[in-house]
Amino acid sequence: MTITLDLSRSRDAAAAPARRQNLTGLTRPALAAALEAGGLVQAGKAKMRASQLWRWMHHYGVTDFAQMTDVAKELRAALSDAYDLSRPEVVERQVSVDGTRKWLIRMAPGVEVETVYIPDVGRSGALCVSSQVGCTLNCTFCHTGTQPLVRNLTAAEIVAQVQVARDELGEWPSPKEDRRLSNIVFMGMGEPLYNLDSVADAIDIIADNEGIAISRRRITVSTSGVVPELKALGERTQAMLAISLHATNDALRDELVPINRKYPIAELIAGIRAYPGLGNARRVTFEYVMLKGVNDSPAEARALVKLLAGIPAKINLIPFNPWPGSPYACSDWGAIEAFAAILNRAGYASPIRTPRGRDILAACGQLKSESEKERASVRRARERAVVVGDSAETDPRDPD
């Protein structure tokens, strides 16, 4: 059982009243059990009532028990007293010139995550969701990894990211055709396999055919290589697997992805080969960020082909997304294309991922930190204006 780690430090946390449980984070069996345990529904009717609530929450997207018109008024009132359906606060909305959307979502005081919708990915569009607030992995090329871990997200908070996106995209009730949101990728903040219980419950909720109804084949979980949890991930979620690889030898991967020191490449590859359901119809996606002069040589490409021999795989080549203070630069385009050509000749699909949302810091590895910087800068400018008085002028280009 995963323990929910909570290191948030809100001054008001101790004084704040206990929050009502949000039912949208409960799986079907857990929802029926909660209704029965709370004395709201008789044992023989708990499963039926749970199905009613489920459709209202996850098919129609309602946020108020009063909207559940086929549920008795007395039960609706009792549910409203005991439970919650509300969405978390959307603190900030940004839209890129390429149509990518980013939301900064406040789950609780001091607990914020960023969620990104990328159009024209998968069947129609993909949502990149977070599983933790911050990260512990400290991958040296990743800006998100510079953020300290605050805590794991609950299943309700993971599902809430999908709900918020669907609210904003107008995707309620759950469409059968012409979806704008067709794929979910756990590639946001955090390491999903360090929060597997919540991730697995969230996938059960998202994939349910009577609710949000996004197929497990269209849900991908990306890990940096928590090898002991790979089998459990496959068995519990049947999700597609992505591996944040980025190097072909332990010496370099130890530097780029420090978890490799605990689970080296040989152990990782063995765990991938044993992933439940692995086959040509369920290929593993390997993510490989292209770092100039670090891992982008033809020799590295040939080593990658050798390393992945026999694994049904696709290799996403990711141009490095720069961030302030990063020690790396993006590989030259010619080097990326030459690298891809070697992989293609070996029979691997190796698309070069077009950077999306760079102008709003929504690209791979850029989440949250820049929004924190921006809001801190605005706050300091406001504080200076208060000190100086009404006549004070502040420069909008104020550096952080």
Helix-strand sequence: EHHHEEEEEEEHEHEHEHHEHEHH
The Rg value, from CA coordinates, equals: 22 Å
Tertiary shape: elongated
Q: Into which percentage range does the β-strand content fall?
A: 15-25%
Question: By helix and strand content, what is the structural category?
Answer: alpha/beta
**Number of E-state strands:** 13
Mean pLDDT: 86
Q: Determine the fraction of residues in helical runs and give it as a percent range.
A: 25-40%
Uncertain ranges: 1-16, 363-374, 376-400
Sheet having the most strands = 9 strands, mixed
First-to-last CA distance: 41 Å
| Widest sheet, order of strands | 3-4-5-6-9-10-11-12-13
Summarize the entry for a quick read.
It is built from eleven helices and 13 strands. With 400 residues, the chain is an alpha/beta fold.
Describe this structure as you would to a colleague.
With 400 residues, this protein is an alpha/beta fold. The chain is 32% helix and 16% strand. The strands form three sheets. Strands 3-4-5-6-9-10-11-12-13 form a nine-stranded mixed beta sheet, covered by helices on one side. Strands 1-2 form a two-stranded parallel sheet. Strands 7-8 form a two-stranded antiparallel sheet. Helix 1 (28-37) packs across helix 2. The chain is elongated and about 70 Å long. Residues 1-16, 363-374 and 376-400 have low confidence and may be disordered.
